[in-house]
Design brief:
Length: 187
């Protein structure tokens, strides 16, 4: 079986005014030996396309078709080119899916799925059917009947171990005043 090997390089010594790359292609046989396509003495391998192998075909035989090597390697056939699938020829695709595949831009894709566009500015004030938001919560003061908020009192230093009754009474009364002011006990 023959194989084709391409060597790509810019050919030197050739006037290339269009600044195009020139591809030099070498065809080799199944043993890797070059095949002379310019009428040299090399004999093509069996199954190769040659003028003789094309002798039985008219000039219109392969028009619009591609060459396909026969499965047994004995020659080739002209076959219709494979047609790429389109959105309309996909099996299993829904009509909506086909419209999305045919969409040429984001707006067309949104229309295909029925999404449309939004005019929402992003501001909460522009929304409709907004829920009622209650007023800010105010923590009630504690009472004898209900729980409530209590403020922290000022720090009161511990009594000295040898404190007298007068000093102890003064500290206790200071603590009671702070508890009343904070709402912990009734005034």
């Amino acid at each position: 079986m023959s194989q084709a090997v391409e060597f790509h390089h810019l050919t030197s010594g050739v006037a290339n005014t269009a600044r195009q790359a020139v591809i030099e292609t070498q065809f080799v046989d199944d043993k890797g030996k070059p095949i002379d396509l310019n009428g040299g003495s090399s004999t093509p391998s069996a199954g190769s396309v040659t003028p003789a192998s094309l002798g039985g075909y008219s000039s219109g035989t392969g028009r619009g078709k591609v060459v396909q090597v026969k499965a047994d390697g004995s020659g080739f056939d002209f076959v219709a080119p494979v047609t790429a699938p389109t959105a309309d020829t996909l099996t299993g695709a829904t009509d909506t899916g086909k419209r999305v595949l045919k969409a040429t831009d984001a707006a067309a894709a949104r229309k295909a799925i029925g999404a449309g566009t939004s005019s929402f500015s992003g501001s909460y004030d522009d929304l409709t059917n907004k829920p009622a938001i209650p007023a800010a919560y105010t923590l009630p003061a504690a009472t004898a009947a209900a729980l409530g908020g209590v403020k922290q009192g000022a720090a009161v230093p511990d009594l000295a171990a040898d404190a007298n009754t007068t000093t102890a009474n003064a500290k206790i009364n200071a603590l009671l005043a702070q508890l009343r002011a904070a709402g912990v006990i009734a005034a």
